[in-house]
Amino acid sequence: MKTIGYAAHSADTPLVPYTFERRGLRADDVAIDILYCGVCHSDLHTARGDWAGTVYPNIPGHEIVGRVTAVGPDVSKFAVGDTVAVGCMVDSCQDCDRCHDDEEQYCRNGFTATYNSPDRITGDNTLGGYSKHVIVREAFVLRVPATLDVSRVAPLLCAGITTYSPLRTWNVGKGSRVGVVGMGGLGHMAIKLAVGLGAHVTVISRSPSKEADASELGADAFLISSDKAAMKAARNSFDLIVDTVPVKHDLNPYMPLLDVDGTLCLVGQVGPLEELVSVPLIMGRRRVAGSLIGGIAETQEVLDFCGRMNILPECEMIRMDEINTAFERMEKADVRYRFVIDMSSLEVPDAA
Prior knowledge:
The chain is α/β, with parallel strands linked by helices. 21% of the residues lie in helices and 25% in strands. The strands form four sheets. Strands 3, 4, 5, 8, 9, 16 and 17 form a seven-stranded mixed β-sheet that branches. Strands 12-11-10-13-14-15 form a six-stranded parallel β-sheet. Strands 1-2 form a two-stranded antiparallel sheet.
């Protein structure tokens, strides 16, 4: 299938229109017309070569919502016309213990990412959702609840599941005390989801100006991390802190905030952190952990949960040709709280 997307051709050039061929439909494949695609910090990092291994031309995008246009003969869960979604993965080995336990994100043989990853059959580099069409193995396609506004669903496929998974792993529910560090694309979803699960949620921020926004998102409390007295008073008051900060930073101020057996879970920064002092960990049996998205079953779970609770990200809709400006704004944290591309703004080649 001939289609079009926006691709980065090098680390230091803007994304531009790029015509390419999607693979033919395999027996267990679903063909999807993309309606909306979310914009993630990972897209920016990959396109600009901040992480090793970017293959160019690179088409980012792993928060995909679309409509089924065709299915392979072995497909049983989806039909033409269904509204569906695709997240950060499009395949895994399906044979290892992690895959059997619905944790394909930890596949022992490595999952196939939605973009910038070798296809398991052809070896061709995968190209993501900044495009008009995509073809995905049925096992990695998700159903979108009819109750949700499809124009705002896309960020649930990465920002949503990335913050939902640690909340479920550490059994957050009614009475849980959850702190959220960082209030961007990930952080605002962590707040909404933790509130939806019944937790008492506190936003931890250096900026007092964000208190009103935190309250609007549903947070119960606001803790200014630069206020030494307030931080001292808040010691031992959290069961879980979800740290969504996407850059190198210091964890030491947050560790005393955890109660005994409390956990600080990193979901933002991929890379180095400031040196960690072990005393608060040892003295309170506290933990620093990490979490990577979630499996397909858990991603469907968060979609269904959001459908029941009417939880949606806060989005700013953009045209496809505004992506480079969106990247620049995202670097400056100038978005509330997630960009979503309206793919109707991207014209399909005549020969498609």
